[in-house]
Design a protein that fits this description.
The chain has 3 domains: about 70 residues; about 90 residues, Winged helix-like DNA-binding domain superfamily/Winged helix DNA-binding domain (Arc Repressor Mutant, subunit A, Orthogonal Bundle); about 55 residues. The protein is about 45% helix and about 15% strand. A hairpin with a 2-residue loop joins strand 10 and strand 11. The N terminus is likely disordered. It comes from Rhodococcus pyridinivorans AK37.
């Protein structure tokens, strides 16, 4: 193998790994906000799609303007990674309900790629009343709706477009704030349509019968620590038998280092970017 070819192969592996790491950190990457990362993901899209699907059971969608890594539900013992308000507090049930209602309103048939904020919020409030959802006092309602809109803006689903020049009846509505809606990305926020599901639990149980090797690898990637006594017998056997192969895969795929001990295993990031907790930890 020539030096130049070896350098190219090494660069391809490094670039694919960097793209995979970026998607783990940020499952939605848009060309508008993260051009360099988006171009890297597009360049390695075939290899990334195959790796995420085969090893983690994740689906990677890459379109001309965005990339979306759609993850499978994690184990109940996995870390709790909630969405957060601007002040750092976690979303509560009502805020998540606001987010779902905003998405539903944006997906309403007939909704275009540009919407009035006032009309959107009016639809959200109407849907909330119809479904018996109470937002609370006006201050809480405003805070929760603002948080939902902020998250969608951060994801690249909506963007402020200033004031409109629309005509409604006999009234020119040129003073209302409007939003541009990235409808293609909006439709990819969930991995499957909810209207065909019998209930919320169905979204979590669809992955129960996946191969043990896939579930184990997913836990090693997503969890800061996997306790041995939390593993089923098949997963524990795979960890003991294939630990060296798992270590190689984790290093090649994501730059993670696998540590296996009597208590369990963890795959940590020496760069400290993907790991939730510093490892090794500081002594008490």
């Amino acid at each position: 193998m020539s030096t130049s070819h070896a350098s190219t192969v090494s660069g391809d592996v490094s670039g694919r790994r960097d793209a995979a790491r970026a998607l783990l950190q940020q499952p939605i990457v848009t060309a508008a906000s993260e051009r360099e990362t988006f171009d890297l993901v597009r360049r390695h899209a075939p290899a990334l799609k195959s790796m995420f699907a085969d090893r983690l059971g994740y689906r990677l969608v890459v379109e001309p303007t965005f990339a979306r890594l759609i993850k499978a539900p994690l184990e109940p013992t996995s870390p709790h990674r909630a969405l957060r308000h601007a002040d750092g507090t976690e979303f509560g049930a009502i805020t998540y309900a606001c987010l779902a209602l905003v998405c539903a309103a944006l997906l309403e048939p007939g909704t275009g790629e540009r919407v009035s904020v006032d009309d959107l919020l009016e639809q959200v409030r109407a849907d909330a009343r119809e479904n018996g959802i109470v937002f609370g006092d006006p201050v809480s309602e405003e805070r929760n709706l603002a948080a939902a809109l902020r998250v969608l803006e951060e994801w690249g689903v909506i963007a402020e477009s200033g004031h409109g020049d629309e005509v409604s009846g006999d009234e020119v509505r040129g003073d209302e704030p409007h939003l541009d809606v990235h409808r293609d990305l909006l439709s990819q926020l969930l991995d499957t349509p909810l209207h065909g599901m019998p209930g919320p639990a169905a979204a979590l149980t669809r992955h129960e019968h996946e191969p043990a090797a896939l579930r184990l690898y997913r836990r090693l990637v997503e969890d800061p620590f996997v306790a041995r006594d939390e593993l089923d017998d098949e997963s524990a056997t795979i960890l003991a038998r294939d630990r060296h192969e798992l270590a190689r895969m984790l290093e090649n795929d994501f730059g993670l280092v696998l540590e296996v001990r009597a208590e369990g295993a963890l795959a940590y990031d020496p760069a400290g970017v993907l790991t939730d907790e510093a490892f090794p930890g500081s002594a008490p």
